[in-house]
Specification:
Elements: H1 2-25, H2 32-55, H3 63-85, H4 90-97
Helix pairs in contact: 1-2, 1-3, 1-4, 2-3
């Protein structure tokens, strides 16, 4: 039980900051559906990387802990974006900041 809670906690921590990292690659002009797909894929990938970083590749033989970590990252990333990063305008600001402007838009 404690191990599962630790997996959820680690997943939650990674997921809480993941929307800021995802905002670097997302673009303001993308549709909401495209942004959601990228966010979910990034969360799933971050969950797998978190499992590997926390317990090594052998950790994947423990299906419950792997699932708890991946689900924790996914849930925390979506929740923190909706409740914190989007209302604060920080994630959208990062999207706009990291979007390259076309030559006619510059200056």
């Amino acid at each position: 039980m404690t191990t599962t809670l630790n997996a959820l906690a680690i997943g939650g921590q990674v997921g809480a900051v993941l929307p800021l990292l995802t905002a670097v690659v997302q673009r303001p002009a993308w549709s909401a559906k495209a942004k959601k797909v990228i966010a979910v894929e990034a969360a799933l990938l971050a969950g797998v990387v978190t499992v590997a970083a926390d317990g090594g590749w052998s950790q994947f033989q423990h299906g419950q802990l792997t699932a708890a970590t991946v689900v924790g990252v996914l849930a925390a990333s979506q929740t923190s974006y909706d409740l914190l990063w989007k209302p604060s305008k920080l994630a959208p600001w990062i999207e706009a900041l990291t979007t390259k402007k076309a030559p006619q838009q510059a200056g």
